[in-house]
Every structure is written in structure tokens, then in C-alpha cells.
């Protein structure tokens, strides 16, 4: 009997240990880090030394982006959340970039690579448990615009020439295959003196290269739309949102550790050049927000849902057909009648005012009104 109780106790403790380990594994797989990259020429964020909290939730990040865009958060935030936003955002309500570059990155230790790059002084917060998606609500089209950076790359832009141009842009090289197109090798020099080789004949390398080119192309297209809106005199708030997976195409676990480190170094270099393009196009009026997930998930679902609230026009629309001559005559008659009535009323009011002003009795109040100095 005692032996049976001992076995039951051991089994129970073993079950608790397995349950605890599984909870730790789930929490680790859902842990994330958010990094806020400020503009070098504008102070939209607090100094990294000004910090009181190291943790944020996904709704807190969504609220911070809404404030950076110049709008109130879509949901009522609590006092602790407001304190976390105060630790990040500039206290001046007029210091808002009205443009945010949001990128969700799936990569194990990309935060370490960013800490050794030009973004080492950026604000970063831990998200201990990734909750359900948060809502970012934007106003109408005239006040805010949402640009997705996840549109797939067309076959027209996936050529040896585009790959070679991209390799040259990031400081690498591309050796094309003279026999078969899109079968070359992209080479990128790493900081440790080694060289990352991406073979377009391999599925993993090709998918990773396509993801990089897609991100760069969509950012360039977003910049073009921004410049067109600026030239037309429009200045809506802009949210550029996309995702990137450094593990894309890697199926075997033993290959993700070493290869992904090299991929992350290439991604950080590419991202640095992308952010320089955005800073130049937006004249420094932009902030980068990067959510770094440590492990890839089975479902590539974004943590942010962007919605737009439609606003009804305050102008009265004429429902009549403008091509109908009878309707046009009616509209002109009503407008002319209103204009004549308004003009007659103004004329009568002016004549009455002049008459009473000329025949105003001289009293103490009227003399004071006429700026006459009395003893």
C-alpha cells in the first residue's frame, strides 16, 4: 500500500514538472520584444535613460502607435498603460511624427544584432506574453492612410537584374547563371569576415531573398505614394505595416541556428538602409516600431488589426440630375431668390442703422459710446 502511494506521489510530481515545463515553453514561444526607433533629427520619443517600466502589452503598443500617428487610442487605456506610454512618448502633444513604420519580425536573436548596430540606443520593451491581436483604429481616408508592406512580389520584378541591383544596394554581389535564369548566387560579406551565400536554386534561400526584395519594393512603393500625396498638398497620417520571417524556408531544426544568424545580420543591414530611405523621404517625420518574435508560429497571424472608421460628409449633396434643364432652372431660381432676399435684408438693416445713428439722442451713454470726453 505504501509503495503504491509512493508511486502515485512520484507520478503526480512528474506530471506537475511536465506541466510547468510546458507552460514555460509556451510562454517562451510567445515572448516578444518591441523596439521603438526614433528619428535622429526629431525627438518624438523619450531618452532610453528615462525609463520606469521594462514591460508592455500588445494593446499598449497599439495605443502608442495611435498617439504617434496623432490620434487618440481606439480603446480606453488604464492608468498603468498610460504610465508606460509616458515613459516612451515625448510629453509634447505637438511632437508627433504622424508616420509610423511597423514591422513584425520573426527571428530568434535579432534584438542582439540590433543592439550592436546603429539602433543600439533605441527604446526596447519586453512583451512577456503575446496576447490576442490589438486594434489600431484609423480615421477616414482623408486623415489617415494604411499601406501594407506584405503585398507579394510580381514575377516581373523577380529577375536576375533586380536581384543584382538589390545585392549591389546592400553591399553584396550576385553571380547569375548563364545557362538557367534565376539560378545564381547572392553573396553578402558578414562582419566576421565570412560570406553569406544565398543560392537561388535552393528553396530556403530563394524564399528568403524574395522576402527581402518584397519588403524593399513595397517600401519604395509606399515612399512613391507619400511623395505623390505631398506634391498634391495632402498630408494624412501614414501607417506602414508589414512582416518578415527570418526562418522562412528553413524546415530542419539543425539548420536554423547557424544559418538564421547570418540571415539576421543581412536583415539588419537591409533594414538599416530601408529606414534611411524612409527618413529621407519623410524628412525625419517618422518613427519605427518593430515587434520581434523569438520563434516562428504555425499560423502567421499579425498581432495588430487595422480598421478604418468611415466619416460621413457634412456637405449637403444635390440629388437631382445635373443634366436635367428643369432641375437646373429650379436650382438657379432658388439660389437667386435667396440671394435677393438676403441682399434686401442687409440693405434695410444698413439703412436703419445709419438712420438711428444719425438721430441718436445726446445722452451721457451715447457720448461715451461716441468717445466724447466728459468732465
TrEMBL record:
Which residue positions does the secretion signal occupy?
Answer: 1-28
State the organism named in the record: Kalanchoe fedtschenkoi
What is the official name of this protein in its record?
Answer: DUF7794 domain-containing protein
* Residues of the DUF7794 domain: 31-293
Q: Which InterPro entries match?
A: DUF7794 (IPR056696)
Q: What is the lineage of its organism?
A: Eukaryota, Viridiplantae, Streptophyta, Embryophyta, Tracheophyta
One of the record's GO cellular component terms: endomembrane system
Q: Which UniProt keywords apply?
A: Membrane, Signal, Transmembrane, Transmembrane helix
* Listed transmembrane segments: 338-358
Amino acid at each position: 500500500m505504501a509503495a503504491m502511494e509512493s508511486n502515485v506521489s512520484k507520478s503526480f510530481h512528474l506530471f506537475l514538472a511536465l506541466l510547468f515545463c510546458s507552460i514555460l515553453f509556451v510562454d517562451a514561444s510567445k515572448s516578444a520584444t518591441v523596439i521603438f526607433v526614433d528619428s535622429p533629427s526629431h525627438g518624438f520619443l523619450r531618452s532610453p535613460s528615462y525609463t520606469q517600466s521594462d514591460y508592455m502589452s500588445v494593446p499598449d503598443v497599439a495605443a502608442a502607435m495611435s498617439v504617434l500617428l496623432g490620434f487618440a487610442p481606439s480603446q480606453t487605456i488604464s492608468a498603468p498603460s498610460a504610465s508606460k506610454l509616458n515613459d516612451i512618448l515625448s510629453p509634447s502633444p505637438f511632437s508627433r511624427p504622424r508616420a509610423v513604420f511597423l514591422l513584425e519580425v520573426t527571428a530568434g536573436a535579432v534584438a542582439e544584432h540590433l543592439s550592436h548596430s546603429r539602433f543600439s540606443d533605441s527604446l526596447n520593451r519586453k512583451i512577456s506574453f503575446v496576447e490576442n491581436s490589438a486594434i489600431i483604429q484609423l480615421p477616414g481616408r482623408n486623415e489617415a492612410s494604411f499601406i501594407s508592406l506584405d503585398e507579394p512580389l510580381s514575377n516581373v520584378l523577380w529577375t536576375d537584374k533586380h536581384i543584382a541591383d538589390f545585392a549591389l544596394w546592400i553591399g553584396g554581389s550576385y553571380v547569375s547563371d548563364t545557362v538557367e535564369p534565376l539560378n545564381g548566387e547572392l553573396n553578402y560579406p558578414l562582419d566576421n569576415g565570412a560570406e553569406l551565400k544565398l543560392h537561388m536554386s535552393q528553396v530556403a534561400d530563394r524564399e528568403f531573398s524574395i522576402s527581402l526584395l518584397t519588403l524593399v519594393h513595397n517600401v519604395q512603393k509606399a515612399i512613391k505614394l507619400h511623395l505623390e500625396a505631398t506634391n498634391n498638398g495632402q498630408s494624412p497620417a501614414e501607417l506602414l505595416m508589414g512582416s518578415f520571417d527570418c526562418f522562412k524556408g528553413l524546415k530542419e531544426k539543425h539548420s536554423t541556428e547557424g544559418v538564421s544568424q547570418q540571415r539576421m545580420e543581412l536583415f539588419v543591414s537591409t533594414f538599416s538602409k530601408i529606414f534611411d530611405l524612409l527618413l529621407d523621404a519623410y524628412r525625419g517625420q517618422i518613427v519605427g516600431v518593430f515587434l520581434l518574435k523569438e520563434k516562428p508560429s504555425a499560423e502567421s497571424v499579425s498581432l495588430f488589426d487595422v480598421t478604418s472608421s468611415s466619416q460621413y460628409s457634412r456637405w449637403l449633396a444635390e440629388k437631382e440630375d445635373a443634366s436635367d434643364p428643369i432641375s437646373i432652372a429650379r436650382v438657379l431660381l432658388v439660389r437667386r431668390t435667396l440671394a435677393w432676399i438676403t441682399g434686401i435684408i442687409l440693405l434695410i438693416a444698413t439703412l436703419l442703422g445709419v438712420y438711428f445713428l444719425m438721430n441718436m439722442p445726446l445722452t451721457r451713454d451715447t457720448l461715451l459710446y461716441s468717445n466724447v470726453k466728459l468732465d
